[in-house]
């Protein structure tokens, strides 16, 4: 008996032989597309520009715009394409209408190599042709990027229409193989789950399933009546568990339990795909009705690796291509071994993967008609033909729709065809030998492990450890880049959902507890308390924290002053380690702290987790930064003299924090002061005093000495004001409102009798942040990001979007989709996972925001206000005002709630002028696909943090040092390389080292601080 490998080779050679009789036109040398692809494979920079240009093209309206973009994208290119572009641009200047049209025509021609038709009627022509070639079909409706429930309803309606048309048009068609037709209905439709519910949150599978089931049932009933097959496609990893659960739920329930014509996709590039498949098979056996699995490698490799690296998650996909190939084969075997319950479809263009399935099916004696090969429309034509000739069942995946909604699909195909690692490129563009093409992927892996081959791919199993190859790390890599952020919690993992639920229920049992203030390590109850309440349910007291009065304040200043004399001489290494221990404790108590934030400040799960992550990052980042700046540094190399530059702490720091990032901001300011050698009086916001008490507990457990950190909750107007004015307070670190910030700034400027230092104020205030959406912006992204930036955490982030600036040109399109998106965001109690808009912090904020909404109604036009927000708790409906003018109050004053003011402008000049026309300069956003406009926005928008083509909230420590100027702050950057310098005074020590004309040749680098007495 021959080995499986030689059987695979035999099958593979036969396929390749048949393929070579009809080479693939996609990879031939002629034609516009072929030339572009050849260039893309040669030149990564060209490929990047080309794909970006293709991405923007369908949304450009006039020929002039098209030509301008062409020039912006390609004019600087220096390669074989340059003459063509320059000629094109010259022609375009003379006759833009002509070149615009030609380009659009060419690109849509390319796109239509991958898109089978504009609509259901259109695609039927293609299906008929394939029928003549004995190739079946599955039709996929393009348009997966939905931003609102209106759009998901439209998608569902299109699915029904598609089923109807296909059933009608294929009446009388028979199975191409003429056997096992009961397993393979003629009409086969592939559905994308994400297109049926716009608010899917990986943290809340139950909510997603509750919304998806009613959307799917009519489609499934229709399909069943018409004898059709429905397949659930698999999308990004974030949606995988929900898709699997949904599949098992619907097809396990009574109505569809006995329906065999349902299938789902398994992606072999996922590390957990084997356990998912085993689980599905087990479920299928219990269900006792056949179902189908389409096995693919997976189409979102780049997306998954980038997302994992950005969030510091373990990467869910394999990092080496042969790992995916080998796993595809392992899963192939699993599927075929369970053929009695699962019908397999192999979705691959890779001849080795296909041949392996064929050989293994032969080994098990499975008839060729009981499984199928599926290939994409426009790809691998000769392979399809070869498989038909060999007597296999072949189905083509045919996407249907317009180019604009189909763009992400189209770009995925372009990436796939030009990928260095792809089979199609290897076979058709690079003519790799048959032996190589048919090689066992396990053999390649083994060789790679043994060092006989170069590392097969650049990403390691853990994306935290190695950066993505495209990051282009060079020797000039910025210093911040050496810092690795703490990971975010992935609430897509069931385990993390369970931990969060448990933490919430445990926290509920602790509500109402009393917390002391802490002076010199002593826990003190003053007899007066600050009650912190749950904004979702104001009768629930989260905790009561002892309130400091003037007497406690005086005591705290004294002990902090005394403790300073010792703490300032504590080596920075010890202080850095204190912060690292605190970070470890927060990490250990992560879910508990998140749960507390949900109750105390109404943060949705992911926002609460983001806040804890930021607090951990502040600790670790500042510890690292202190090590960087702690040692004295030689200023210059001058013979005979040593001059060392170094820093001293300032003294006693008074930290005043807001409630909206109750742990992160308090922790950031406090740890910055501590690690630089200052002693601290820490005052949390009254509304988040329990979070403050937790931070005190954590830093004490980490080992902060008594007196070095003192916890003093109290009334800002009483003890806060007293401390700001205190002669023995040397530094004030404040984050909060402009009103209070300016008062502190002014008051700190007055020198009081006995004061030793000029007070330093680190001052972060509010914003009136603008986002501009350019005419060519990707609206699928812009709407989702703007909606989140404005409504996420109820608009209570200082970075939140508050003014949306729209060009006349796209005003109507954006408004229509934005309003629908606002109507779809989830509003509710943030104890539920997946909520976007919870309650605002307290009754005062609630009333103030409602007042602004009244002002908006009198000044501008109410374009949209959400109805039906929860009646209990401080819930404000997401609100959008249009016809807003720059001088109106709602365009100038900070509202700090889920309210957007929309301003319409003529052009980008006016947009930038309006964006810059406020007192504030905190964050700003710009959505555009014009390289020139992006460069201009980067240069001209006045904000401390300018974000391009992404949300304007969610700054990450080290990566996006955060803080503004003008009336937004004093220009310090939390989480940035310069931040610690605010807490220090620089000092230079110079020594003449010459003695009678002789001097050492070199001054030594100091390895230690200037500490006295010297430590061993
Ligand atoms: C009919 C059909 C339906 C499909 N449906 C889906 C679907 O629902 N969901 C989905 O995600 N995809 C789907 N795909 C797309 C499919 O995932 C890709 O076309 C497929 O991965 C290409 O694999 P291949 O075997 O044809 O080619 P190959 O060239 O052998 O493999 C390319 C694949 O290898 C993987 N890969 C590339 N580089 C690496 C690396 N460094 N490390 C690890 N793995 C790597 C990627 O998955 C890449 O797509 C479908 C494909 C077909 C044909």
What would the keywords be for this entry?
1016 residues; alpha/beta; eight-stranded parallel barrel; seven-stranded mixed β-sheet; 45% helix; 15% strand; globular; binds flavin-adenine dinucleotide
Structure description:
- The protein is built from 34 helices and 30 strands.
- It is α/β, with parallel strands linked by helices and 1016 residues long.
- The relative contact order is 0.08.
- Helix 11 packs parallel to helix 13 (321-337).
- The structure holds flavin-adenine dinucleotide.
- Flavin-adenine dinucleotide binds at residues 233-234, 265, 267, 269, 294, 296-301, 317-321, 323-325, 347-350, 353, 374-376, 397, 416, 421-423, 457.
- Flavin-adenine dinucleotide is lined by residues 233-234, 265, 267, 269, 294, 296-301, 317-321, 323-325, 347-350, 353, 374-376, 397, 416, 421-423, 457.
Specify Rg, calculated over alpha carbons: 32 Å
- Work out the strand percent: 5-15%
Helical/strand content category: alpha/beta
Largest pleated sheet: 8 strands, parallel, barrel
Distance between the termini: 76 Å
Ranges where pLDDT stays below 50 over 5 or more residues in a row are 455-477
Bound molecules: flavin-adenine dinucleotide
Number of DSSP strand runs: 30
Number of helices, counting only DSSP H or I runs of 4 residues or more: 34
Q: What spatial form do the alpha-carbon principal axes imply? A: globular
Helicity, as a percent range: 40-55%
Widest beta sheet: strand line-up: 1-2-3-4-5-6-7-8
Give the overall average pLDDT.
92
């Amino acid at each position: 008996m021959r080995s499986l490998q030689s059987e695979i080779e035999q099958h593979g050679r036969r396929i390749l032989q048949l393929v070579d009789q009809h080479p693939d036109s996609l990879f031939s040398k002629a034609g516009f597309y072929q030339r572009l692809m050849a260039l893309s494979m040669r030149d990564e920079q060209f490929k990047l520009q080309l794909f970006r240009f293709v991405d923007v093209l369908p949304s450009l309206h006039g020929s002039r715009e098209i030509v301008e973009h062409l020039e912006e994208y390609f004019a600087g290119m220096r390669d074989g394409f340059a003459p063509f572009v320059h000629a094109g641009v010259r022609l375009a200047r003379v006759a833009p209408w002509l070149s615009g049209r030609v380009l659009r025509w060419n690109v849509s021609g390319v796109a239509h190599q991958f898109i089978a038709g504009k609509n259901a009627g259109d695609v039927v022509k293609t299906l008929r042709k394939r029928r003549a070639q004995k190739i079946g079909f599955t039709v996929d409706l393009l348009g997966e990027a939905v931003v609102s429930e209106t759009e998901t309803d439209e998608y569902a309606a299109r699915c029904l229409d598609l089923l109807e048309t296909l059933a009608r048009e294929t009446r009388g068609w028979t199975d191409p193989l003429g056997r096992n037709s009961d397993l393979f209905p003629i009409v086969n439709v592939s559905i994308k789950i994400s297109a049926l519910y716009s608010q899917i949150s990986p943290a809340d599978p139950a909510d997603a399933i509750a919304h998806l089931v009613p959307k799917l049932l009519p489609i499934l009933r229709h399909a069943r009546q018409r004898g059709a097959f429905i397949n659930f496609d698999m999308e990004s990893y974030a949606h995988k568990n929900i898709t699997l659960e949904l599949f098992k739920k619907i097809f396990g329930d009574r109505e569809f339990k006995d329906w065999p014509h349902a299938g789902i996709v398994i992606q072999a590039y996922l590390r957990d795909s084997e356990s998912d498949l085993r689980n599905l098979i087990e479920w299928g056996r219990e269900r006792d009705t056949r179902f189908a699995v389409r096995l693919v490698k997976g189409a979102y490799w780049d997306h998954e690796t980038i997302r994992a690296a950005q969030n510091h998650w373990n990467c869910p996909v394999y990092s080496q291509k042969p790992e995916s190939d080998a796993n595809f084969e392992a899963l192939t075997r699993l599927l075929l071994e369970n053929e009695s319950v699962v019908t397999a479809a192999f979705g691959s263009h890779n001849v080795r993967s296909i041949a392996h399935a064929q050989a293994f099916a032969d080994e098990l004696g499975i008839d060729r008609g009981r499984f199928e090969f599926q290939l994409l429309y426009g790809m691998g034509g000769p392979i399809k033909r070869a498989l038909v000739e060999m007597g296999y069942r072949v189905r083509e995946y045919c996407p249907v729709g317009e180019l604009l909604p189909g763009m992400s699909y189209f770009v995925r195909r372009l990436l796939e065809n030009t990928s260095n690692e792809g089979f199609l490129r290897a076979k058709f563009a690079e003519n790799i030998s048959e032996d190589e093409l048919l090689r066992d992927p396990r053999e390649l892996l083994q060789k790679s492990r043994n060092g006989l081959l170069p590392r097969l791919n650049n990403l390691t199993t853990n994306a935290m450890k190695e950066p993505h190859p495209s990051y282009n790390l060079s020797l000039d890599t910025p210093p911040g880049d050496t810092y690795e952020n703490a990971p975010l919690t992935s609430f897509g993992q069931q385990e993390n959902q369970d931990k969060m639920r448990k933490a919430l229920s445990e926290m509920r049992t602790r509500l109402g507890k009393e917390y002391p203030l802490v002076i010199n390590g002593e826990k003190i109850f003053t007899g007066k308390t600050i009650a912190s309440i749950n904004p979702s349910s104001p009768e629930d007291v989260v905790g009561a924290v002892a309130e400091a009065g003037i007497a406690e304040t005086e005591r705290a200043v004294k002990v902090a002053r005394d403790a300073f004399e010792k703490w300032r001489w504590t080596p920075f290494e010890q202080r850095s380690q204190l912060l690292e221990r605190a970070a470890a404790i927060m990490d250990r108590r992560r879910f508990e702290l998140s749960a507390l934030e949900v109750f105390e400040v109404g943060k949705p799960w992911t926002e609460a987790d983001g806040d804890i992550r930021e607090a951990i990052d502040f600790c670790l980042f500042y510890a690292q930064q202190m090590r960087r700046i702690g040692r004295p540094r030689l200023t210059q190399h001058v013979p005979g003299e040593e001059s060392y530059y170094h820093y001293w702490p300032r003294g006693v720091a008074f930290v005043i924090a807001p409630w909206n990032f109750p742990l992160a901001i308090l922790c950031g300011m406090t740890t910055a002061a501590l690690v630089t050698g200052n002693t601290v009086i820490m005052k949390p916001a009254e509304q988040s005093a329990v979070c403050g008490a937790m931070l005190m507990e954590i830093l004490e457990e980490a080992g902060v000495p008594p007196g070095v950190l003192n916890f003093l909750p109290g009334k800002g107007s009483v003890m806060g004001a007293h401390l700001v004015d205190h002669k023995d307070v040397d530094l004030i670190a404040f984050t909060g409102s402009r009103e209070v910030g300016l008062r502190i700034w002014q008051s700190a400027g007055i020198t009081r009798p006995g004061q030793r230092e000029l007070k330093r104020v680190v001052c972060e205030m509010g914003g009136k942040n603008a986002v501009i959406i350019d005419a060519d912006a990707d609206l699928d992204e812009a709407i989702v990001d703007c909606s989140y930036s404005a409504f996420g955490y109820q608009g209570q982030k200082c970075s939140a979007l508050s003014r949306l600036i729209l060009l006349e040109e796209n005003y109507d399109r954006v408004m229509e989709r934005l309003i629908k998106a606002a109507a779809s965001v989830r509003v509710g109690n943030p104890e539920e996972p997946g909520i976007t808009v919870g309650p605002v912090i307290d009754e005062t904020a609630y009333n103030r925001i409602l007042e602004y909404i009244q002002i908006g109604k009198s000044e501008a036009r109410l374009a949209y206000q959400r109805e039906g927000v929860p009646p209990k708790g401080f819930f404000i409906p997401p609100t959008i005002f249009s016809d807003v003018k720059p001088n109106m109050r709602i365009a100038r004053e900070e509202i700090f709630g889920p309210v957007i003011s929309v301003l319409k402008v003529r052009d980008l000049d006016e947009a930038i002028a309006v964006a810059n026309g406020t007192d504030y300069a905190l964050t700003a956003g710009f959505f555009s696909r014009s390289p020139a406009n992006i460069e201009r926005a980067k240069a001209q928008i006045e904000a401390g943090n300018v974000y391009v083509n992404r949300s304007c909230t969610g700054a990450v420590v080290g990566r996006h040092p955060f803080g503004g100027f003008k009336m937004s702050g004093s220009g310090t950057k939390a989480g940035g390389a310069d931040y610690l310098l605010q807490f220090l005074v620089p000092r230079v020590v110079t020594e003449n080292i010459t003695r009678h004309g002789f001097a050492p040749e070199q001054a030594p680098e100091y390895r230690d601080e200037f500490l006295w007495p010297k430590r061993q």
